[in-house]
């Protein structure tokens, strides 16, 4: 007699992952706005400032690789909770440090701030865990839509927080804002703990059923995708598949690009077009929200016509519009180009995550880790490159820097065409 019990549903699993990632990505949002405050009392060098702002993104990006792969081993819930708890510890540590040392006793605390920053960045790594979880919950013909909702609504925090945080800092002050943000993260962690659940196969396995029995019962319950091994095996298996690295490159340009421009655009709008800090923040927020929300229809479109077609269109759109923006000093034209770039980012980010379970179906977690982790690493790499263009060319560099995205687009188009279209046609 079958006594197996299952809980949850695809909708519940997707909701939990989306909410968890929304809160997880919030953990590092205070670092950018607060860096100036810290610099005022710590007299940091430009390189120290750069490391301070980037360290949570760096740890959050690289941790996506092993934690994404861990989904194939434990279903994701345990990994997700661990990352959120570490993020809470990081924020709580920063809150206590600032509460006891800021502003007059901050000398010698820089390296401790970096450690807490690394821990705070763990929340960002929930992306690859949630992507793997969501993929296992849904059938292949609905994964684009599901991953679009997960990535779109989860990433929406970047735009929302760009508006909320300056207001919070202004109304309650620098130190109090960290305590409030810590409480916010604790609430998100508890909420995820209450509503989250792994896909059916992992639930059956936890109840002691064999791999074969768990898979058979999960298929009966509606699950289509299954892992081929543990975390190490998942990473190794996905790393041996060329398509994994093609998707990494494409995601590096558009998700890394999304993160890079979210950090770079406030400076661009102020320096290139003379906008105020508030206006630059508002423009950036509109861009970030649009790029995030476009992942939802982008995922749906990828389900209908194929992720590869959507990706090729989005990359070509990005390359064309970035070239126009590189030579535009008109505010209206640049504003419109930024919105179109957001559309291209949103569509391609959705399409690439749809393609992960298509091309790497036996190690979705491992592939999600590689794609999500190394792709997000672009958010750490691209801003210094844009800054270097400005250092070399002066004020004109704020415009010409966008040619980097045109160059990246050409490279990605060639790789997608020869690596996926031609290669699979010849199989």
UniProtKB/TrEMBL annotation:
Alphabetic keyword roster = Membrane, Nitrate assimilation, Transmembrane, Transmembrane helix
Q: Where is this protein primarily located?
A: membrane
Q: GO molecular function: any one? A: nitrate transmembrane transporter activity
The subcellular location is: Membrane
The record gives the membrane topology as: Multi-pass membrane protein
- GO biological process annotation, one example: nitrate assimilation
Q: InterPro entries in the record, alphabetically?
A: MFS, MFS_dom, MFS_trans_sf, NO3_transporter
Q: Which Gene3D superfamilies match?
A: MFS general substrate transporter like domains
Domain Major facilitator superfamily (MFS) profile, by residue range, is 13-427
> GO terms for CC?
membrane
Spans through the membrane: 12-32, 44-67, 79-98, 110-132, 144-169, 175-195, 245-265, 277-296, 308-327, 333-352, 364-386, 398-422
Say if the entry is tagged with keyword Secreted: no
User: Which superkingdom is the protein from?
Assistant: Bacteria
Q: Which PANTHER family does the protein's record reference?
A: HIGH-AFFINITY NITRATE TRANSPORTER 2.3
* Family according to the record: Belongs to the major facilitator superfamily. Nitrate/nitrite porter (TC 2.A.1.8) family.
Protein name as annotated: NNP family nitrate/nitrite transporter-like MFS transporter
This protein's species is: Macellibacteroides fermentans
Q: What is the lineage of its organism?
A: Bacteria, Pseudomonadati, Bacteroidota, Bacteroidia, Bacteroidales
